[in-house]
Amino acid sequence: xxxxxxxxxxxxxxxxxxxxxxxxxxxxxxxxxxxxxxxxxxxxxxxxxxxxxxxxxxxxxxxxxxxxxxxxxxxxxxxxxxxxxxxxxxxxxxxxxxxxxxxxxxxxxxxxxxxxxxxxxxxxxxxxxxxxxxxxxxxxxxxxxxxxxxxxxxxxxxxxxxxxxxxxxxxxxxxxxxxxxxxxxxxxxxxxxxxxxxxxxxxxxxxxxxxxxxxxxxxxxxxxxxxxxxxxxxxxxxxxxxxxxxxxxxxxxxxxxxxxxxxxxxxxxxxxxxxxxxxxxxxxxxxxxxxxxxxxxxxxxxxxxxxxxxxxxxxxxxxxxxxxxxxxxxxxxxxxxxxxxxxxxxxxxxxxxxxxxxxxxxxxxxxxxxxxxxxxxxxxxxxxxxxxxxxxxxxxxxxxxxxxxxxxxxxxxxxxxxxxxxxxxxxxxxxxxxxxxxxxxxxxxxxxxxxxxxxxxxxxxxxxxxxxxxxxxxxxx
Amino acid sequence: xxxxxxxxxxxxxxxxxxxxxxxxxxxxxxxxxxxxxxxxxxxxxxxxxxxxxxxxxxxxxxxxxxxxxxxxxxxxxxxxxxxxxxxxxxxxxxxxxxxxxxxxxxxxxxxxxxxxxxxxxxxxxxxxxxxxxxxxxxxxxxxxxxxxxxxxxxxxxxxxxxxxxxxxxxxxxxxxxxxxxxxxxxxxxxxxxxxxxxxxxxxxxxxxxxxxxxxxxxxxxxxxxxxxxxxxxxxxxxxxxxxxxxxxxxxxxxxxxxxxxxxxxxxxxxxxxxxxxxxxxxxxxxxxxxxxxxxxxxxxxxxxxxxxxxxxxxxxxxxxxxxxxxxxxxxxxxxxxxxxxxxxxxxxxxxxxxxxxxxxxxxxxxxxxxxxxxxxxxxxxxxxxxxxxxxxxxxxxxxxxxxxxxxxxxxxxxxxxxxxxxxxxxxxxxxxxxxxxxxxxxxxxxxxxxxxxxxxxxxxxxxxxxxxxxxxxxxxx
Lengths: 477, 477
Known about the structure:
Two copies of one chain form a homodimer. Chain A is 36% helix and 27% strand. Chain A has helices at residues 2-9, 18-28, 45-64, 78-81, 85-91, 117-127, 172-192, 239-244, 268-277, 306-316, 331-340, 351-355, 377-402, 410-419, 432-442; strands spanning 32-34, 41-43, 68-69, 75-77, 96-101, 104-112, 136-145, 159-169, 199-202, 214-221, 227-237, 247-249, 255-257, 259-266, 294-298, 322-324, 345-349, 358-363, 369-373, 404-406, 423-428, 445-450, 469-474. Chain A has 15 helices and 23 strands. Chain A starts with a helix and ends with a strand. By secondary structure, the first copy, chain A, is of the alpha+beta class. Chain A is globular, with a radius of gyration of 25 Å. In chain A, the strands form five sheets. The first copy, chain A, has an eleven-stranded mixed beta sheet with strand order 3-7-8-14-11-10-9-22-23-21-20, sandwiched between helices. The longest helix of chain A has 26 residues, at 377-402. In chain A, helix 14 (410-419) links the parallel strand 20 and strand 21 (423-428). Chains A and B meet through strand 2, helix 3, strand 3, strand 4 and strand 5 of A and strand 2, helix 3, strand 3, strand 4 and strand 5 of B. Strand 5 (96-101) of chain A pairs antiparallel with strand 5 (96-101) of chain B.
C-alpha cells in the first residue's frame, strides 16, 4: 500500500504551496517537461492530447463562422516589424533574432514571430484589391516566441502554441462585430467545454494590445484567487491598414482602408484547466476536453472473466473515450494514477460486482461512488459525464463568485487585495495614473472593464474623482 | 466569353514549359504565394485545406499504430546539435541561427530546428529509464527551417510544414519493423488517398539521412518525368542512443541502448499532387483529398427555382464536401474556376435540366459529361467519386510505368536520361564512385534500391563489375 500511495503523496498540497502544487501536477500528470532550451517546454502526450481537443473544438467553432486556415512564415524581417510604431515598441524588446542563415550572415535580421499582424498585413496589402476580396477571415495554428525572463510551464514560456486569427473588413462596424463575435466564441468555449467561467470585458488603454484601438478580453479566476487572461480579441481600426497601405476599391470606386481584427487563444489554457479544477489528488479534467473520459480498472484481474468483462464494458461504452487499464500495476496504484491524470470517471469491476451484474462508477471531481447495473451502464456513464461537466462549471463559478469582492475606497481595496485573493470590483476615473498607483500599491492590475457594468459608487476608488467605469482588478498570472 | 476564358488562357501549357505551368497553377489555384521573407511561403486557404486533409488522414493512420503526438521546442542549442557527428555535418550548413533574445546576445546560439532528432534524443535520455518505458512512439506536427539557396513553392522552401515521428525501442528488430511499417503507411496513404503510385525501397549510403543506419524511401514520378522523394523512414540503430546516452534497464537489469527511428512527410506532397495529376486547365484533385469534392453551378441562375434546386441538390449530397457557386460570375467563368481549383465533380443544373428532372455531372479528370436523374444523384456522385479516385491512380501508374526504362550499359543509360525523362532501372555494383560518375554525367541520382529487385543483368551499368543491386535512377526535384 505504501507504493500505491507514493504517486499521490509526492504532490504538495495546494493550500500549502500553490505554485509547487501546480508544478507537481504538471510533472506527475505528465503534461509537460522542461527542455534543454531555457524557458521552452516539451509538451508530452497527455498534455498535447488536451491541446488537440482544444484545437479540434475551437477550429470547428471558427469554421462555423466562416474562418479559413492559412499558414504565414515563421520569420519577420526587421523592417516589416517596424512598420507600425506602437506594435514594434510593444514587441521588439522580447523577440528572438535570427542573424545567420547557414554559414552566412543575413543582410537583414529576421525576428521569430511573436505574433503575426505584420505578416498578415504585408500579405493583405498585396492580396486585397476590391470590395469583392473582403472580408478576409483567416486564422493560423502555430507556435510563437517571446523572450520572457521568468517562465512557468504553460503559463509563460519562451515558445508557446496558439491560434491567431487575423481579419480584414470593409467597414469599422463589421470589424467591431467580428472582434466581439470571436470574444464571445472564446467565452462560450471556456464555459461550455473547459467548464471555466469567465468575465467578458474590455482592456483599459494601458493594458491593451500594442497597436490595437480596442482589446477585449475574457478573464478567469484560478483556485488561488489569481486572475488569468484567457483569450483576447483586438480591433485595430484602420491603424495597421494605414501603416501597411491596405486599401480596396469600394463599390463607388473610391479607395478605402480596410478595418482589421486579431484574436488568439494559447496553450496557457491547459494551465487554466489545471488551476481552476485541480485538487490535491492531481488533475481534474472536464469530460468534454478529457482525452480519456472513462478508465476501466479491473479488480482482481487474475480471476477468471474479470478482464473479459472489463473489455465488454469498454465495448458497451463505444462513443466515449474509454481505456481499460490492464497493466500489471496494483488496483490501488491504478486508482491513484487515474486521479492524478484527471480522468473524469473510473469504472471499477471485480468478481463480486460481476456476481451482482454491477460496476462501481467513481467521479473524479467529487470522489463519489455510484453502483450501477451493467445492463444500462452506457446511459449511466453518459448521464454522469454530463453531470460532472455541469457541476465543474458551477463549482468553478461559485468559487469565482465567492472570491469576487467590492471595494469603494482605497484602504479597503488594498486590504482586500492583500488579504482576500480574488477579483476586486471597483470604480475607476479612467486615468492611467490611478491604474499605475494601484499596481504600485498592490501589484494588482486592471483585468477588464466588464461588459456588464454596475454602479458601485460614483467615485474612483483611487483618486475619488468622478468614476466612468467599473473595473475588475486582481493579481494575475 | 473572352472574360470567361481569361482565367484559363493565362496558364502556360505544361508541354511548353512545365516549370512555368507549375508556378501558374500554384498561383491561379490560389494555393500559395511568396512572402516578403525570401524563400518562405504563405500557404493560402485552398492550399492549407489540402494540408489539413493530409494531416487528418495521416494522423488517424498514425494513431491506429499507437503513435502519440507531442511538441518539442523550436530551438536547438548548438552544443546539442553537435552531439551526433554525421547529423551535425549534414545539417549545420543549412540552418538559421538565433543569436539574440530581446536586446541581449545569447550565451549560446540556437538553431531553428531543421529536424528534431537531437531534441527527441535529449528528451528520451531523461525520460527513458526502464524497459517499461519502451517503446516510445512519438510524433509532432510542426514547421522546420532549412536555409536553401534556390526555392520553389511547396517543393523546396526555407520553411516547410511536416510531421516528424521519432521512436525508441528495446531491440533492433522492433526498430526495423517500425521503420518499414511507417514507410508502408506512407506508401499506402499516397496510393489510396493521393492517387500517387510510389516505388518503395532503400536509399544508398550516399543518399541516406545524416546519422541514419538505413533510410527507406518512397519515390514518385511527376508528369514531366522527374522523380520526387515523397516520404522517408530512417532506422538509426543505436547510433544516436550512444551519442546521447539513452539507456534503459532491461528485464535482466542490464543497461542497454535503445534503438531509434524517425520518419517524415511534408507539404511538398501538395507539389506532388499538382505535378502528378494537374493538366492545362489547372489543378486536378483526387476526391479523397479534395477540400471541395463537388461544386454545383446553377445555369441561368436568375430563372425561378434554379438556385433553390441547386441547394436542394446540395442537401441531397450530404456526406460529401459540396459547395454551391452562387456568386454573380458567369457560368463559363465558374466552370473555368472550378477546373482551375481541381474540384473532382461539377454539377451543372439549369431550367432545361429541371424540366427533365436531370443534372449534368462533369468529371474534372476526363472532362466527361454524364447526365443523371435527380432521383438518384447521391448514388451517382458517390460512384463517380470512387471511379475518379480509382482512375486517377491507374492513370498515374500507367504514366509512371510508361516512363520507367531499363538500361544495361552506360551509353544507353546516358541516352535514356537525356532523352526520355522518367525512371531508369539499372544494375549497380554498390560503390559510390559509380553513383558519383552517373550524377556527373547525367544529373540523375540513385532514387532507391527497390524492395522488389529484378536481375536485369549481372554487371554494374557504370563500371561493369559484378552488380549487387538494381537501382531506380532519375533526375529529381
